[in-house]
Amino acid sequence: MEIRKVGVVGCGLMGSGIAQAAATAGFDTVVREVSQELLDKGRSAIDRSLAKFVEKGELSPEQKAQALGRLLPTLQLEDLANCDLVIEAVIENLAQKRELFTELDRIVKPHAVFASNTSSLSITELMTATQRAPRFLGLHFFNPVPLMKLVEVVKTVVTDPEVVQTGLDFARRLGKTPILTTDRAGFIVNRLLVPYLLDAIRALEEGFGTIEDIDQGMKLGCNHPMGPFTLMDFVGVDTTYSIAEILFQEYREKRFAPPPLLKRMVLAGMFGRKSGKGFYDYSDPKNPKVNKLLEGRG
Ligand code: CAA
Description:
Elements: E1 5-9, H1 13-24, E2 28-32, H2 36-55, H3 61-69, E3 71-74, E4 85-88, H4 94-107, E5 113-116, H5 123-127, E6 136-141, E7 150-155, H6 161-173, E8 177-182, H7 189-205, H8 211-222, H9 228-235, H10 237-251, H11 260-267, E9 280-281, E10 289-290
Parallel strand pairs: 1-2, 1-4, 2-3, 4-5, 5-6, 7-8
Antiparallel strand pairs: 6-7, 9-10
Helix pairs in contact: 1-2, 7-9, 7-10
The structure holds acetoacetyl-coenzyme A.
């Protein structure tokens, strides 16, 4: 099935990155937000990110202008009516996503493919909010979308094989590498990544080392681009917590259970980079320091 026009619902961190990748790859891309303020914020994030590619010589100024020209920011879901593929990237809330999909199902042409960028909710549960189960799948992108090469393509027990192929082909057209997985909480990457991140918190609580030393250990000892605490602050301490809760609900295994410190940090508003404080303090964003409140735990 040929995809010509792409719709992205949500222009936050993930939605803006997906819309940027689609527009850069040559797709007419409609991106919808709920307020003008959020839409403007997403649009300027795309503009800044494209500017970085121009700075690095990976895109010409004309290609940047063309990508922006293919982008239609909107506040109306109705503007997605004739999209061939609609990717949802709104807040990770099952009820809200289901409600949105029911509405999209009414608005968007029946043959269009629907995808969710959820990192941990069940694709099958989202799919049942629509009448197009065979044309529904997961397309899970990674943060920062413009740089990260991976897309997890998630099929349910009823996804049409042709639609799976469409998802794989679409990811490749964006210059990404797709991997195919089934609808199990965490898919492949978070199924492996989240227990590792939770274990880093346990290692800290058990006195194996300090936040900085554990981070350095994985950065320099395993060549990870970020240590586990830096990565949790980057992904969001709150997001890590909510993914862990979902994994624990699904598998009921201790390794997925969020450690008490993680929950306390979320309750205290230490969400990581986005709130200015997590495992590190971002008062000076270019020079983060270990969060003093957590010091001495190691
Ligand atoms: N758009 C365009 N360019 C960008 C960019 C963006 N959004 N963000 C950063 N860049 C560019 C920078 O300008 C910089 O360019 P130069 O090399 O020319 O200076 C380059 O990318 C590197 O950026 P930084 O120097 O700021 O930082 P870095 O070297 O640490 O790289 C990173 C940043 C790519 C994010 C790297 O640290 C990394 O790969 N980290 C791990 C990310 C990761 O694991 N993501 C997955 C999270 S899990 C997830 O997303 C799934 C889930 O469900 C939770």
